[in-house]
Write a structure and sequence with these properties.
The complex is a heterodimer. By secondary structure, chain A is an all-alpha fold. Chain A is built from six helices and no strands. Chain A has a single domain (about 5-135), classed as Up-down Bundle (Four Helix Bundle (Hemerythrin (Met), subunit A)). Helices cover about 50% and strands about 20% of the residues of chain B. Chain B has helices at about 10-20, 35-40, 60-70, 85-95, 110-140, 150-165, 180-190, 190-205, 230-245, 275-290, 315-320; strands spanning about 1-5, 25-30, 50, 75-80, 100-105, 170-180, 215, 220-225, 250, 255, 260-265, 300. The two termini of chain B are about 60 Å apart. The chains are: A mainly alpha, B alpha/beta.
Amino acid sequence: MGQLSNEEIEECTMNNSDQGHSEPIWNVAELLERVDHDQELLRDLLNIFKEDFPRTMRSLESAVAARDLKNCARLSHTLKGMLSSLGARRAAAAAAALDVIASSGETASLKESLDALLREGASLVPELDGYVAEVRR
Amino acid sequence: MKILIADDEALSRRLLEKTLERAGYEVISVENGKQALDELCKLEGPRLALLDWIMPELDGPAVCRAVRTRAEQAYVYMVLLTSKDSKEETVLGLESGADDYLTKPFNAEELRARLRVGERILLLEDRLVEARENMRFRATHDTLTSLLNRGAIMDLLARELQRSHREQKTTLILLGDIDHFKRVNDTFGHEVGDQVVVETANRLLGAVRSYDFVGRYGGEEFLVVLNSCDPAFARSRAEEIRKSISNRQIQTAKGPLTLTMSFGALLSSEWALKTIEELLHEVDIALYDAKAAGRDCLRVAKPATKPDPTSESLPHAVRLTH
């Protein structure tokens, strides 16, 4: 796997900011600093994420459909940790919001909150794939 | 240094593993609270731990509480590393017994610095334990010979007598005294006298089994306690111990010296239940008899030949002059 320059990393981070959000979808620079610029470790983490994120999201969707608040809280909390470790702050914030709603016992806005998280997840995954493709080039 | 990571979320766990391996730690990684507790309770288990809050089986705070109830084991420095970031949760986490609290995503530099704090606390604990053990050793051991001191050997004897009575076994008590020790001190000086005492202690220790006890009872007097002793072989065992002193010369700064010891012996099973003081008095009389018989020998205290209790004080007083 190749190495990106600081400028390329910055550009990548800036590009993945949506309009209306001050926070990027994925903060590559933050994650690179966290892994001490170890590209192999970063690739490991992305592989783990690509395997665990969809699986956990599916479980969360089932828990929301079943109004299973306990599991909703547990799974959204897990996602919050996973996403924040990855530097995906916006998706992490969406997972945190769902965690708060489920923990407070509120069922009315569960679905809405889940949809917000799904949207963030849908934006995030292509960003990660794009980065991997960029590094491979 | 070993460190435990307990996190059910694979991405965070992998990130932590790599970060801590780079920092030089020997990482043990588990996926739930039960496994974490098992690792932390092992005899040589890790003493630093990073615990996630929400985990299957047992959560992080429950692991902290369980570890803290085990007061007998070495201190474990535990850090809760979690996405729970409210003040209330921080307080709850620390109240459960965690030493520190960090929120995800962690900053690697801050994490390493906080773990170094933990290492300093553990080092401090090790030093305190070592100081306590040194003090305990000094309180129970003789400075010159490092044998058990009088108080400690008496305590052990009392315990052994109770056990042998309970298990219907025999404890052999030997009270030995270096013959003509005063002459050694007067002729060669106290430095040589000390060398003789130290070598005597070493030979007595070398002559007994690892689970027997030897203590310095007084200046040149030693108390030997042989547990679960077969009465049929008691006398020959006692003679072997006595001969370990006389069978070869003791090397001193003033040249080799030939020394002997006299012993009083007592087999606990031959006596009705008596206090430790009463039994030691009997063995003391037997030692006096050995001295009176010409020294370098052994006499066994027998209930049938026990002197009239009303005259007990006389031989004891006489023996003190030897």
